[in-house]
Design a protein that fits this description.
The chain contains 3 helices and 22 strands. It is mainly beta. Strands 1, 3, 5, 6, 8 and 9 form a 6-stranded mixed β-sheet that branches. A 6-stranded mixed β-sheet has the order 14-13-17-18-11-19, with helices on one face. Strand 20 and strand 21 form a beta hairpin. It is globular, with a radius of gyration of 24 Å.
Length: about 375
């Protein structure tokens, strides 16, 4: 969390300091903000320092801004950079952003394992700071997780303190009239001897792909805990029922900008006990009663609606394939629409499909999933 220090009450109010490595613009003029980075994925570390303009719509003013970055080792701080800029703040700027970056263009050469701090100053007054972490457990292949293995993901309902309750009732379908928070019992097994920080994002989406809510957790994994299981309890909702509609949802888990798990679940008329399906890179995670996990295929006996829902979630969890995902999802929406109006349009589609491409590009996986989608329709 960004920490405020001092404010000039007449001009601005501290809003925050955020860190990102990717320079890609995202929705609503945001970036891919994070607190934990892998050494081998990192070139420049970028900072976004923002304040509320208290003279908005009243007057222009000038700011002398300084952004400093430090390497922190216990009580000792070593300054890495001291970046200055002057800005004329227009009276049409409600929120004022100051951005800069530091590092080198070669991956893994500048930012080494450690704890770092960005500080923001205006007119030589320290306004705030934020901490971030760079980790190094070795160079990984694309999509490979050298830090931990996913052990299990289960879902349960409760109030804002339900994560502390001893006996949890795990669900795959939630009651719309009763559901307050949808909680996750998320467990991972440490794979390395050294200590590190892990940052996990849990994003909840409705069936249209709109973001419902999100939460993030930073966990310190202690040294010499190889094989130890760590448990997190992310969730989203409210203290009173009504935030969740009768709908299908997914919870996506992100680590180091990689999608590591997709968990589809439903909210309906009545709660149904059981373990939610967990997809990891298109493969279902089979969870045993003890919470241990292995990969396997989905159960063979499913009704059409469940098969379609789970097959689409499996397709959408695959890395890349954006155009294919978009076309398949649009086709499903079109067929469902015509089915609801009493028209059997599916028989007018040709189910003969030709897959072309180099070996190892996912043709067989997509074909298998597409066959299940057709069956679900």
């Amino acid at each position: 969390m960004s920490t405020p220090e001092n404010n000039q009450p007449g001009k601005y109010k501290f809003r925050g300091i955020k860190v990102h490595s990717s320079d890609e613009w995202m929705a609503d003029a945001t970036k891919k903000y994070r607190k934990v980075y892998d050494r081998y994925e990192t070139t420049y570390i970028r900072v976004e320092f923002s304040v509320f303009n208290k003279l908005f719509d009243e007057a222009e003013w000038e700011a002398n801004v300084r952004l400093k970055c430090f390497f922190v080792n216990g009580t000792h701080r070593r300054e890495l950079c001291n970046l200055e800029q002057k800005r004329n703040i227009g009276k049409d700027e409600n929120i004022v952003y100051f951005r800069d970056s530091w590092g080198q263009s070669t991956y893994g050469t500048y930012w080494l394992k450690g704890i770092y701090v960005w500080e923001g100053y205006i007119d030589e007054v320290k306004v705030g700071e934020t901490t971030f972490y760079v980790e190094d457990v070795g160079a990984a292949r694309k999509g490979e997780n050298l830090f931990f293995d996913l052990e299990s993901v289960r879902l349960f309902e409760g109030d804002g303190k339900a994560s502390t309750q001893e006996n949890k009732r795990y669900l795959k379908t939630f009651s719309q009239k009763e559901t307050r928070y949808v909680w996750s019992d998320f467990r991972f097994k440490n794979k390395v001897h050294s200590d590190y920080y892990t940052e996990l994002f849990f994003n909840f989406y409705d069936k249209a792909g709109l973001l419902k809510g999100s939460s993030s957790y930073i966990t310190h994994v202690a040294a010499n805990t190889l094989g130890q299981t760590y448990t997190l309890y992310p969730g989203w909702g409210g203290e009173t029922p009504g935030r969740w509609s009768s709908d299908t949802y997914t919870m996506e888990v992100i680590f180091l900008d990689n999608l590591i798990a997709t968990v589809p679940f439903k909210v309906g008329d009545a709660a149904e006990e059981g373990d939610a399906q967990v997809l990891t890179n298109g493969v279902q995670l089979t969870q045993t009663p003890t919470g241990q996990a292995s990969t396997g295929s989905a159960p063979a006996t499913k009704n059409s609606e469940d098969l379609l829902f789970e097959s689409l979630a499996e397709l959408n969890s695959l890395t890349g394939l954006t155009k294919i995902k978009q076309e398949v999802n649009e086709m499903v929406k079109l067929v469902k629409f015509y089915q609801e109006t009493g028209k059997d349009i599916l028989n007018k589609f040709s189910l003969h499909t030709v897959f072309t491409g180099n070996p190892g590009t996912g043709k067989t996986t997509v074909a298998r999933i597409l066959a299940k989608i057709y069956k679900g329709l």
